[in-house]
Design a protein that fits this description.
Elements (H helix, E strand, L loop, with lengths): L16 H15 L11 H8 L3 H13 L3 E4 L3 E4 L10
Helix pairs in contact: 1-3, 2-3
Length: 90
């Protein structure tokens, strides 16, 4: 996810930072930068790239899991398992 380095959450936005991160990951999936079955980078690395605490990053991942977009496999990582809603027409 090299484009993460160029994107940062907007702390002045009314949208929670975790939701901004989750949406950015969805955009990465929609654009093809992340494909189904791709593994996300480790949580500590993503937290460092987004310049957020690990708990904020974990909340973003949990949000994606609840939407059925990613799946976390213990000791393996977090994987993209579905396209975000709204990407079928793109």
């Amino acid at each position: 996810m090299s484009e993460t380095d160029e994107w940062m959450p907007n702390p002045r936005s009314r949208v929670y930072v975790y939701a901004q991160i989750a949406e950015h990951i969805c955009e990465q999936i929609r654009s093809g930068a992340l494909a189904i079955e791709d593994r996300l980078d480790p949580e500590p690395e993503l937290a460092h790239r987004y310049e957020v605490g690990i708990n904020t990053l974990r909340r973003a991942i949990r949000h994606l899991r609840e939407q059925g977009i990613v799946e976390t496999v213990p000791a393996k990582g977090t994987f993209v398992i579905a396209m975000p809603k709204g990407s079928e027409s793109k």
